[in-house]
Model the fold of this input.
Amino acid sequence: MSHKQRVDQQPSFVLHSHPWRETSLIVEVFSRDYGRVAMVAKGARRPMSALRGVLMAFQPLLVDWSGGGEVKTLVRAEWQGGQPLLTGRALLCGYYLNELLVKLSAREDPHPGLFEAYSEALCQLAGGQSQGVLLRRFELALLRELGYGVLLDHDARSGEPVDPARRYLYIIEEGPIALGADIGSVDPDCQIISGQTLLDMAAGVLERPETLAQSKSLLRALINHYLGGQSLQSRRVFTELQLL
Amino acid sequence: MAYYLLQRDQRGAHRLAESLERALSSLQHCERCNTFTEERICQRCANPQRDARLLCVVEMPADLAMIEQTLAYKGLYYVLMGRLSPLDGIGPRELGLEKLLARATDGVVEEVILATNFTNEGEATAHMLSELLAARGVRASRLSRGVPVGGELEHTDSGTIAQALVERRTL
Done:
């Protein structure tokens, strides 16, 4: 599929890793210019390996790798620093971001814009910003960058601009349709959303309480749709923790 | 190893097979600390010399062994046999946290020391446990981290120094 490549000093984050053979790791890396790439970090699990403390999720790295197959070989990873470790709830939110990237983005499909949105979200998480707003902003950026054109500012049927005073029915894969017109019977799974929320989302301004609540349920429905039946483990773990 | 045993050391292979067989049939989890033991309650938990007011939570039996080696801790343990790892689908249910919570709220334990690893998963586990324990009125503490004993800043990795600065303490 891809040619043998040698990549140097690529800004990246580790999304996930799992042990491989006796002393190595397979690392799922999200890089700026190459998208999600899997690579073997040879010897990374040896007690004295210099890579041990470096290949941590949520930390900005510069990574060198080589190889032509689906799984590359990690050559070097350098910690860039400047970002405190995630702790507490922010850490659980970080896992959610990583799981979205692992499950929704394709391997070796570059999305520099998404990389930017991800770094910003991590930085805000580490800085203790309101998690609801930054998670919604990332979800929206993810869907847009991956090319699932989420229509927000126009009525999908009439083509007219969204009116902040009206209420809309949001149909996935189609867009908002003004309520009150002759739309026939309403599917109970469909989302009913105010025009103001749609415009706020289009502008990326999510702080208004109603916008935050409605965009959460709309984005959840969209993400579930594009996950195609896969469940999100980080969401399940989070819910289980609330119940204990 | 398998080829070597089959070709050169068949008696050793038998011994290994028997040991594994015996371990599989007789080992169980200690009722109190969850580590592997052949009895219902392991020797460490049954030892009256140990301080039952302290409970140290570790991920794996190897971590317990390491803390024991320091001779600096006289309390009891709880071994999680894993860590929270949302991306691998390991959550509170898979870790069997009810057993730990019951153990920590037995009325004797006064402080729970969270000694999970300083990886993201270990941190997430410690955070989750600290919240669950706080909700039940049990005091929790976390192992501190920073520059290693005898370590020189010049030869310490920058991630460790950065974190040591963030977590610095007043004297």
Q: What stands out?
A: Residues 150-244 of chain A form a domain with the de novo design (two linked rop proteins) fold (CATH 1.20.1440.120). The first helix of chain A runs from residue 88 to 104. Residues 130 and 214 of chain A are 17 Å apart (CA to CA).
